[in-house]
């Protein structure tokens, strides 16, 4: 396995990956796109910071790529939709640089309030100019935090220690989960109207692009100061420039820009703007932590283990992994089972989870759909792209969760709706091992391994003997057998586990019998 490490990711954090037998690490600085395209096809994994863009074009050359690791938080330099489409896992290292980015934001706020960079430059240029640098205190001022996640909430704590009033806007946070009762959660307009300092800590998304635009500036207090150490483009740079020129804003501190790297901007000409080249996470401690975190994730992915900091698939909590593993195996097998039962065009797959699935049903559904599509499609299907591939084929995926039913503490039922017909399979765990416990409403108990014969037939004497004789005559050993009926004399369901794949002619021989309604062989 080969891993390409770009963008100056800290080598000290990569030791675990470097020492792993069978893994070769190529560590290099940021390379231009054409150079990346020329080499990317060799690699199973790539690790980047924010400089390298892993876009659709780069991915189209990345034939072996299984995982993209971001040694940091923001993944806006990675085309997530394309990665998902191609079944490439994207992982990041979200917690490792929180403190560094937080401390840096506080430093920027203080630098802005007290004109430290400007005073530093002037004095080093030989001017002792005390009068030019009248600052403002932070104590009692209102700090508006947009985005109260890891960094936003760590900033709130520190700002409160400096006796600032903290208001925050984050529509994705419930009031009760806010870390301190002294943080007032408000709507965006109120934050804009009340804040003396506004700092941004959201990701860059469609909804945060130009969140601070001309209209937003018009709602702010005169003399507001803006800090952006999150992502360029959340503040509209033209609107900010106009606000600074007009005196609406008294200053801005920016670590990030719409285009990076950036060495020339009208904003750089304004004396009340403090800038830095995206160095919020650039501390030794943060870089070692994020490199080590992402190395662990890459290692887990390449070894086929479950990973926790996934960006383009649902996150699985680390402590749930052992509990979830047998369920993942179960649902994948159920998907494989169902795809081999299909006889017409599939319109919808409906999954019903009964019991407690640790709030991980999205992950289980992805595994089930992977199991369903794997035997059908030629392309690589995995947990990452399974749902997208199903949707591309017009297959609707529905899932519902209900509490315990039918006496099983955990029961999963999959119904597949085809043109003109439908089929279902139910599964559960017995002593931690996957079991198929129902087929088309018939109760059975079969282990989804090897080969299963599914034989609906008329409920009458001699049927088991008939099938057993044909298999025996063809030297096929039966390792398990179940027969189930809903009512006497109607239809029964025979499910037989066999040691070998049953040849087509033997299946045809069984099917010939008048009371045999169908024969399907399911291979796992
Ligand atoms: N300058 C630098 O070097 C660094 C920048 N960052 C950036 O800082 C930002 C925050 O990072 P974390 O706190 O670790 O992320 P996080 O995911 O913990 O927090 C982001 C918060 O933003 C909120 N949010 C999302 N959309 C929103 C919207 N439309 N309006 C208001 N709130 C919204 C989310 O609910 C979440 O609470 C990210 O953009 C990250 O890339 C992070 C580390 C270093
Ligand atoms: O983690 C993040 O989101 C950052 O912005 C840090 O970026 P960097 O790794 O320093 O290029």
Can you walk me through this structure?
The protein has about 525 residues and is an alpha/beta fold. It folds into 4 domains: about 1-95 and about 285-300, 3-Layer(aba) Sandwich (Rossmann fold), CATH 3.40.50; about 100-275, 3-Layer(aba) Sandwich (Rossmann fold), CATH 3.40.50.720; about 320-450, D-3-phosphoglycerate dehydrogenase, domain 3 (60s Ribosomal Protein L30, Chain: A, 2-Layer Sandwich); about 450-520, Alpha-Beta Plaits (2-Layer Sandwich), CATH 3.30.70.260. The protein is about 30% helix and about 25% strand. It has 16 helices and 22 strands. It has helices at about 15-20, 35-40, 55-60, 80-85, 100-115, 115-125, 150-160, 190-195, 215-220, 235-245, 285-300, 320-340, 360-375, 385-390, 465-475, 505-510; strands at about 1-5, 25, 45-50, 65-70, 90, 140-145, 165-170, 185, 195-200, 225-230, 250-255, 275, 345-355, 395-400, 410-420, 420-430, 435-440, 440-445, 450-460, 480-485, 490-500, 520-524. It has a 7-stranded parallel beta sheet with strand order 8-7-6-9-10-11-12, with helices on both faces. It has a 6-stranded mixed beta sheet with strand order 14-13-15-16-17-18. A 5-stranded parallel beta sheet has the order 2-1-3-4-5. The structure holds 1,4-dihydronicotinamide adenine dinucleotide (NAI) and 2-oxo-3-(phosphonooxy)propanoic acid. The site of 2-oxo-3-(phosphonooxy)propanoic acid has 9 residues, from loops.
């Amino acid at each position: 396995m080969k891993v390409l490490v770009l963008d100056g990711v800290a080598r000290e954090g990569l030791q675990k990956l470097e020492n792993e037998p069978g893994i070769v690490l190529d560590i290099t600085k940021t390379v231009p796109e054409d150079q990346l395209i020329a080499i990317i096809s060799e690699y199973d994994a790539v690790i980047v910071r924010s400089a390298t863009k892993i876009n659709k074009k780069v991915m189209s050359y990345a034939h072996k790529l299984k995982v993209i690791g971001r040694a940091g938080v923001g993944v806006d330099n990675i085309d997530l939709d394309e990665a998902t489409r191609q079944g490439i896992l994207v992982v990041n290292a979200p917690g490792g640089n929180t403190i560094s980015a937080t401390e840096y934001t506080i430093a920027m706020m203080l630098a802005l309030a007290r004109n430290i960079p400007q005073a530093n430059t002037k004095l080093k240029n030989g001017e002792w100019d005390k009068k030019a640098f009248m600052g403002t205190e932070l104590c009692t001022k209102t700090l508006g935090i947009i985005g109260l996640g890891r960094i936003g909430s760590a900033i709130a704590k520190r700002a409160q220690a400096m006796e600032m009033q903290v208001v925050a806007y984050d529509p994705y946070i419930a009031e009760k989960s806010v870390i301190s009762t002294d943080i007032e959660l408000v709507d965006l307009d109120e934050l804009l109207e009340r804040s003396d300092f506004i700092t941004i800590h959201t990701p860059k998304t469609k909804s945060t692009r130009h969140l601070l635009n001309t209209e937003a500036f018009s709602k702010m207090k005169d003399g507001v100061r803006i800090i952006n150490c999150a992502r360029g483009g959340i503040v509209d740079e033209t609107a900010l420039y106009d606000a600074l020129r007009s005196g609406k804003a008294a200053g801005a501190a920016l670590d990030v820009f719409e285009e990076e790297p950036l060495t020339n901007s009208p904003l750089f000409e304004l004396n009340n703007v403090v800038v830095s080249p995206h160095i919020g996470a650039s501390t030794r401690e943060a870089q070692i932590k994020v490199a080590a975190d992402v190395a662990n994730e890459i290692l887990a992915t390449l070894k086929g283990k479950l990973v926790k900091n996934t960006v383009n698939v649902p996150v699985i909590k680390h402590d749930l992994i052992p509990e979830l593993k047998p369920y993942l195996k179960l649902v994948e097998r159920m998907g494989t089972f169902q795809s081999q039962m299909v006889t017409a065009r599939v319109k919808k797959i409906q999954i019903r989870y009964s019991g407690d699935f640790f709030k991980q049903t999205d992950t289980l559904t992805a595994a089930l759909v992977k199991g369903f599509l794997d035997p059908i499609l030629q392309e690589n299907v995995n947990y990452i792209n399974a749902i997208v591939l199903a949707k591309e084929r017009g297959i609707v995926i529905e899932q519902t969760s209900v509490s315990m039913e039918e006496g099983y503490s955990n029961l999963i039922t999959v119904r597949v709706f085809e043109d003109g017909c439908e089929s279902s399979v139910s599964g559960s765990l017995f002593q931690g091992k996957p079991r198929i416990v129902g087929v088309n409403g018939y109760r059975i108990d079969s282990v989804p391994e090897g080969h299963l014969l599914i034989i609906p037939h008329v409920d009458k004497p001699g049927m088991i003997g008939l099938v057993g004789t044909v298999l025996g005559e063809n030297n096929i050993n039966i390792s398990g057998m179940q027969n189930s009926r809903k009512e006497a004399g109607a239809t029964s369901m025979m499910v037989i586990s066999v040691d070998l794949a049953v040849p087509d002619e033997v299946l045809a021989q069984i099917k010939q019998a008048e009371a045999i309604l169908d024969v399907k062989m399911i291979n796992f």
